[in-house]
Amino acid sequence: MRIVKLDDTSKKNILNDLLKRSPNNYDKYADSVNEILQNVKENGNKALFDYTLKFDKADISAENIKVTKEEIEEAYNSLENPELVDIIKKSLKNIKDYHEKQKQYSWFDSKTDGSILGQKVTALARVGVYVPGGKAAYPSSVLMNVIPAKVAGVDEIVMVTPPGKDGKVNPNTLVAANEAGVDVIYKVGGAQAIAALAYGTESIKKVDKIVGPGNIYVALAKKAVFGYVSIDSVAGPSEIMVIADESANPRYVAADLLSQAEHDELASAILVTTSTELANEVSKWVDFFVSKLKRNEILTKSLENYGYILVADNMEDVIDIANEIASEHLEILTTNPFDTMTRVRNAGAIFLGEYSSEPLGDYFAGPNHVLPTNGTAKFFSPLSVDDFIKKSSIISFSREALMPLSDDIQKFAKAEGLTAHANSIRVRFEEDDNNCQ
Question: Dihedral through CA 191, CA 47, CA 54, CA 23, nearest 10?
Fold first, then answer.
C-alpha cells in the first residue's frame, strides 16, 4: 500500500482523486437512465416487465411481480445458514433501540394573549426501499433502511429488488425484509424500479420517498426523480479513513482498511498517521491480508486506485485532512480517541478505540450504516428517523394577540410592495370599507 508524505501538494492531489468517484461524474449513463424513466412513466407495467426481461432475464408479469407469503416461507427454508434468522433479530433489536431515541414529537406553545405556536410531526405515508439483488444482496442494508421508517411510523413500506433468472428473490433479502416488517415486496430492480416507485404503474403505487443503495443506474435514476419524490441521497462508493498515532495496532488498522476496500474497485481506504513506523507496519500487514483474503482482486484494484497511507507532521494536520475528506467511516485509534473526536467536524460515522471496528457499525451496533459519501458528510447526516417524517408549522392567534402586531406586519408587507398582504391584516381592525359593491 502506497505511503505518501502529507503536504499541500499531496493533499490537493488526493482530494481531486477522490472526487473522481462522485456520482456527479456518471453523466455518460444519464441518457440511458432518462430513457428508461420516461418509458416507464409513459407505459407503466409494459415497460417495467420488458426491462426486467431484458436486464434480469426474468419473466415477470402483473400476476407474479409481488412476492407471496409462500415465497417468504420458502426463503426461510432455503437459507444456507439458518442461524442467520436469530442474528438478524438481534441486529434488528439494536437498530430499533438506537433509532427509537431519535423520535420527534409534535409540540405546542400557548400564551395568555391567545396565541398558539407549534409544530406537527407527521410520518410519511408511503416509502419505497430499493435493495440490490444477486451477489450484492445485503440483508443488513434492508434492516438499516426499513427500521427507521418503521420507528417513524410510516404507514406503508414498499420494497423493490431485482429477481434472479428464475424469478425468485435472494432468500437472505426476503428474510430480512419480513423480520423488519416490510409491507409489500416487488420483484423489480434497476432504474425501472426507481421509475415505478416515483411515477407509479398499474402494479406499483407511487411512493413519497425512495431510499436504499444501488448501482450507477439506480443512483442516477434517484437523482433524476428527485422532486417527483424525495430521496435519501445519491450515494457514492464506500470509504474509510483511519486516524492513528504510534499507539495503534498496525494489524488492526490494516484489517479495518481492507474491510471497506473489498466492496468494489472504487472504494477508498486511507490511513492518516503521525507515525512513520506505524505506516510501514500497516503497509506490510495490508499486503499480507490481501494475499490471504478471497476478494483479493477487488482489494488490489481498490488500493491501487484509492488507497493511501498518509504520514503527517502533527495531529493538527491529521485532523485537517480528515475534515477536508469528510469520510463516510472514520476510525480514531489514538491514545485518547475521545479527545481526538472533539476536533473532528466532518464524518459520517465515527468509531472510537481499537475494538470499535467499522463492521461493528455495518451489522450490529445500532446506528445507521447508510452514511454520506464523497465529502457530503460536511452537510449531510446518516439515515435516521428524521428522513421519514415531515413537519408542519402551527399558528393560531386571537384578535387580542394579533392586534399589537398588526401595524408592524402591514409596514413590513408594504416595504416589500405587497399591499394585499397588508390589506389582509388591515381589514381585521377597520370598519367595513363602504361596501364592496
Answer: -10
- Considering the segment(s) 3-22+236-365 as one domain, its CATH architecture is 3-Layer(aba) Sandwich (3.40)
Q: Which parts are annotated binding residues for substrate? A: 238, 260, 263, 329, 362, 416, 421
Give the Å distances, CA to CA, from 406 to 50, 215, 421, 425, 429.
61, 55, 11, 6, 8
Residues annotated as binding site?
130, 192, 215, 238, 260, 263, 329, 362, 416, 421
Say whether 25-231 and 3-22+236-365 share the same fold: yes
Q: What are the start-end ranges of the H helices in 111-189?
A: 139-152, 171-180
- 329 catalytically annotated: yes
Percent helix, percent strand, percent coil in the chain, to nearest 5? 50, 15, 35
Count of residues in the chain: 437
Per-residue pLDDT, averaged over 87-100, amounts to 98
- Name the residue ranges covered by the structural domains of the chain: 3-22+236-365, 25-231, 399-437
Let me know: does 287 contact 388? Beta carbons within 8 Å: no
Which of the following is catalytic: 179, 328, 331, 358? 328
CATH of domain 25-231: 3.40.50.1980
Segment 356-396, tens digit of pLDDT: 999 999 999 999 999 999 999 999 999 999 999 999 999 99
Say what percent of the chain tops pLDDT 70: 97
Residue 22 confidence (pLDDT): 73
Instruction: Check if 328 is active-site.
Output: yes
